[in-house]
Amino acid sequence: MVSRMVGVGLALATALGVCGPAWAQGGGAPPASPVVQAPVVQADAPGRWIRGESEHFIVYSDRSEALIRRYVTMLEDFDAVLRTLHGKTDVETPRKLPLYLLSDTRQLRRVIPNADERLQGIYLTGVEDIFVLAIRNDDNLGDRTNGDDTVLHEYTHHFMMQYFPDAYPGWLVEGLAEYYKTIDLQMKRVRIGDFSRGRASSLLNDKWLPMSDILSKRASQFDRDDALTFYAQSWLLTHYIWSDKERRKKLQDYLELVRDHQDPIASWTKLYGQDSATLEKTLRGYMKSLPVLTIGREPPKPQIAFSRLPAGADDLILEVQRLKGGVAKAEAPALLAQFQQIAAKRPNEYYSRLALARAEIDLGDRAKGEAILTTLLDERPDDLETLQVMAYSRLEAARRLARTPADRDKAKAVYAEAATYLGRAHKLDGDNYLTLYGYAETKSLDREPSQNTLNVVFRAASIAPQNPAIRVNAARLFIRAKQYEIARELLEPVAGNPHGGAQARRAGQLLTTLEGKADGEALKPATAAAASGEGDKDAPGG
């Protein structure tokens, strides 16, 4: 990172030293409270769902520890291969990736109601959670390799964004995930570079897209059938590049040209000497004899800690994940009623009451939800999730007040309340991205963010770089501070994300605004207001 962020560790510690009473600065110190003995709370009765936690993953399933063990071992094995190949064996893992093992489409639709029956897995990157849903029937029919192709594809995206966040063309983003997903994790060796039946069939039987389109477009720009062909050709092109050191060495120069807005096919021709037709001919010949990389090794034996979730999770664990992704307004009343009915079955269970509080805050009556949370925090003052849910409810209330200029003083007071809850959460987990990001938002009404606030939001974006909203809103704070170079570094991966949607468009617009601007240079007032998120309901304080 640029030199301005070299002191992040020290400054971050300074910022989070404010996590205690000083987090509420501006709102006044909280009054002294008498020492009260916390009530004795019974543990929730266990249910079917099991949680298995390893070094890099947290896997949930309602089936068996044996299934979780096999799955976690596969994931840790794959992660170790990626780290070895990309020189990341000694780097930190700032956040473990949660993964929910599902039995069928019926369970998947508890999270994504309109999920296609053909969907076997999905990677979701909301602000509240970044996680994977995977249907695992364990029969391996049609799978030539040992490994869950869909999940390994998505985990490649997750890994690359965590350790190599940058702007990449769509063909490389998808091609690399396709390349690694067919890895064959055998007992004594790993084979990389095999083909999947679906992609091979597409390449052999379908009409190819022009390579100029592959190099310049994203999967979302094609209809469904052509998108499948795009994935297949992207896999083959990536395989062609990755299998040869000289071709791979030239790739960095190619990416620099494309990031500099040079024509993709002209840049390819300049570096590789192939126009669109020649590249297609080369790839058709290449796929007749695909090289496969074989690596001998001892498979990992991960340590896995198992625990059983409360009985309420049997009915609500997937519905809570649905809440985190947002619920359409028309679907909200029915889903809220479902939470209320299910929670009533276990009126004293902590898990069910917390789930109901979430639902009331998101879909129903915020005051009712916060009243439940207040009771829960009286019972368990140090429950991290409950503290975060309360803090984010207060943040949303403050955000709504801040949209009306006359209510901004009220908003500051509510932001201070949120900061108090976040301070308590930070004492429990000092490196949680939700806590750090929320803290930065409590400072969003400051005319210019302090370096401490910038350090905190930068750390949040570093822990959860996969979430585009966090990166975009972090960039907006750096724009407000006239630190444009860091803002660009935060925005470029979002703008280049082939699945980035509205946030990718926002990032692209902000990058256009920053073109030619040096750190410290003032933007025009209207431009600065728009770039920092004023008037944007999705931006903190907007």
Topology diagram in text:
Elements: H1 8-16, E1 46-53, E2 57-61, H2 65-85, E3 97-102, H3 105-108, E4 121-125, E5 130-135, H4 149-163, H5 170-181, E6 184-185, E7 189-192, H6 197-205, H7 211-216, H8 224-242, H9 245-259, H10 264-272, H11 276-286, E8 293-296, E9 305-310, H12 312-324, H13 332-344, H14 350-363, H15 366-379, H16 384-402, H17 408-428, H18 433-442, H19 451-463, H20 468-480, H21 484-495, H22 501-514, H23 525-531
Helix pairs in contact: 1-19, 4-5, 5-8, 6-8, 9-10, 12-13, 12-14, 13-14, 14-15, 15-16, 16-17, 16-18, 17-18, 18-19, 19-20, 20-21, 21-22
DSSP summary: helix tally: 23
The total count of strands amounts to 9
* Residue share in β-strands: 5-15%
Give the proportion of residues in helices: 40-55%
Rg over C-alpha atoms, rounded to the nearest angstrom: 25 Å
Which sequence of strands runs across the widest sheet? 4-5-3-2-1-9
Shape: globular
| Low-pLDDT windows of residues | 1-36
Largest sheet descriptor: 6 strands, mixed
State the end-to-end distance: 28 Å
| Class by alpha and beta content | alpha+beta
Q: Average pLDDT value?
A: 89
Short description, anyone?
This protein has 23 helices and nine strands.
Explain what this protein looks like in three dimensions:
It is a single chain. With 542 residues, the chain is of the alpha+beta class. 54% of the residues lie in helices and 8% in strands. It has 23 helices and nine strands. It has helices at residues 8-16, 65-85, 105-108, 149-163, 170-181, 197-205, 211-216, 224-242, 245-259, 264-272, 276-286, 312-324, 332-344, 350-363, 366-379, 384-402, 408-428, 433-442, 451-463, 468-480, 484-495, 501-514, 525-531; strands spanning 46-53, 57-61, 97-102, 121-125, 130-135, 184-185, 189-192, 293-296, 305-310. It has a six-stranded mixed sheet with strand order 4-5-3-2-1-9. Strands 6-7-8 form a three-stranded antiparallel sheet, covered by helices on one side. A hairpin with a 4-residue loop joins strand 4 and strand 5. Helix 5 (170-181) packs across helix 8 (224-242). The longest helix has 21 residues, at 65-85. It starts with 7 loop residues before the first helix and ends in an 11-residue tail after the last helix. Mean pLDDT is 89; it is low at 1-36.
